[in-house]
Design goal:
With 364 residues, this protein is α/β, with parallel strands linked by helices. Helix content is 32%, strand content 15%. The strands form 2 sheets. An 8-stranded mixed β-sheet has the order 1-5-4-6-7-8-9-3, sandwiched between helices.
């Protein structure tokens, strides 16, 4: 029934028609293909980031000290350091949540979204329920669709793969005593809005919402996927529970240097400029895709990728690979199906070349 959560089995991995939660965009990429499947920015690293990372290589004999990076991240978001937990990327944060929150009775994951949160919960033995948002409603969140007795709720904002940016007020409406709300803001730094100086709809600075945990990643905008650096923001007592499940020295010295550098005002200003350019490039991609027959762009994309509905997308994706282009299949995301593809935003020249090839494939 439309709007009803669907319960899934706790064992990891696809079963029957279950989506493959372990599939990610990097599996689509191979030498010789133009990468539109992975949402990591590929531009050259600025000196203010590269220099501290390089300098940190001289300190590898010492154990990592997360204190300075933790303080820097806390200052960026207007929080005390006790409300920051540094992690080896956002993926580790999801594993810590799944392992540490053992008393959760009814975890709910709002889909379509990044599949690692559900995969981590299932691997830890949790019985997960899904709330599937509707394509006909542009995958927008209605807080009333989340079960009132859910004591753990996980959602992305902006959401991967839909690129939907949910209003902060709708997310805040999901918080309540006795519930942990996890908002994955891995792509929050890619968003802009007219008249908004910072990241629109972010909850990263909200300290008044009970049980709120915000997941952040530095790997996307700054091209640090191989370095593995992210962090959690939330109540100190809750983060202490997660830290107890984390291995010692989980975040490397170079990754800590990157976290400190990316929390500076210089970095934040650069991030905002990148997000503004990305918005223009995204508008160009949406316009070119929308002009193609049979192609429908989902909703109003707000991040570094767009979700498109293309009849026969599985065959189209393979045809694109034969022509030298890699895009992300959509059928591994719960709530989507074989006619969906995710396309990363790139520069206008790359977009023009891609959409020309796509048009030829669709006309064949």
């Amino acid at each position: 029934m439309r709007g009803q959560p669907t319960e899934t089995r706790p064992e990891p991995g696809p079963t029957g028609d279950e989506p493959d939660l372990a599939h990610h965009g990097d599996a689509e990429v191979e030498p010789g293909l133009v990468d539109l499947a992975v949402n990591v920015r590929r531009d050259a690293m600025p000196d203010w980031l590269a220099d501290p990372i390089t300098a940190a290589l001289g300190d590898l004999a010492a154990y990592p000290d997360p204190g300075p990076a933790r303080a820097a991240v806390a200052a960026r978001h207007g929080r005390p350091p006790a409300e920051v937990l540094l992690t080896a990327g956002a993926a580790e944060a999801f594993v810590l949540l799944a392992r540490a929150l053992t008393g959760v009775r009814r975890p709910v994951v709002v889909h379509p979204q990044f599949t690692e949160p559900e995969a981590a919960l299932r691997a830890a033995g949790h019985r997960v329920q899904r709330v599937l948002l509707d394509a006909d409603d542009d995958f927008r969140l209605d807080p009333a669709r989340v079960p009132a007795d859910a004591d753990l709720v996980m959602i992305g904002n902006p959401t991967n793969p839909t690129s939907v940016l949910h209003p902060a007020a709708d997310l805040a409406a999901l918080t309540r005593p006795g519930r942990v709300l996890v908002v994955d803001e891995a792509f929050a730094d890619t968003t802009v809005a007219p008249g908004v100086a910072g990241e629109p709809e972010s909850l990263a600075a909200r300290r008044d919402l009970p049980g709120l945990l915000v997941v952040r990643s530095l790997t996307k905008t700054w091209g640090l996927a191989g370095l593995r650096i992210g962090y959690l923001l939330g109540e100190a007592a809750l983060l202490e529970r997660l830290a107890a499940a984390q291995p010692l020295w989980a975040v490397s010295t170079p990754a800590l240097a990157a976290a400190s550098a990316c929390a500076t005002p210089v970095a934040v200003d650069a991030e905002r400029a990148i997000a503004a350019r990305l918005a223009a490039d995204r508008d160009h991609l949406v316009a070119r895709l929308s002009a193609l027959p049979g192609v429908r762009v989902a909703g109003r994309p707000a991040s570094a990728f767009v979700l498109v509905h293309v009849p026969g997308a599985a065959a189209v994706r393979l045809a694109l690979r034969r022509r030298g282009w890699a895009v992300r299949r959509g059928d591994t995301f719960p709530g989507l199906g074989p006619d969906w593809l995710r396309v990363a935003v790139r520069d206008p020249a790359t977009t023009d070349a891609f959409t020309e090839v796509l048009a030829e494939i669709l006309e064949a």
